[in-house]
Amino acid sequence: MTAISRLSRRIFIACSLGCAMFASSLAQAQLSIEITGAGASRIPVAIADFAGDDPMSRIVTGTVRGDLERSGLFKMVDTTGAALDENTPVDYGAWKNRGADALAAGSLVRSGNGRVETRFRLYDTLKSDALGGAIYVTNAGQLRMAGHRVADFIYEKLTGERGIFSTRIAYVIKSRNQYHLQIADADGQNPATALSSVEPIISPVWSPDGGRLAYVSFEKKKPIIIVHSLASGERKVVANFKGSNSAPAWSPDGRRLAVVLSKDGNSQLYTVNADGSGGLQRLAQSSGIDTEPRYSADGSSIYFTSDRGGSPQIYRISSQGGAAQRVTFDGTYNVSPRPSPDGKSLAFITRRDGRFQLAVMDLASNQIQVLTDSSRDESPSFAPNSRMILFATEVGGRGVLSAVSIDGRIKQRLSIAAGDVREPAWGPFLK
Amino acid sequence: MKKLLSVVFLAAVLAACSNTPVPEDTGAPVESRAGSGTDVKTVVAGDLDASGLPRELSDPKSQLAQRSIYFDLDRYEVKSDYQGLVAAHAKFLTANPGFRVLIQGNTDERGSREYNLSLGQKRADAVKRALVLLGVQDNQVESVSLGEEKPKNPGQDEAAYAENRRADILYRAPDGRGEF
Question: Which residue of B has its CA nearest to A201?
Answer without folding.
Answer: B149
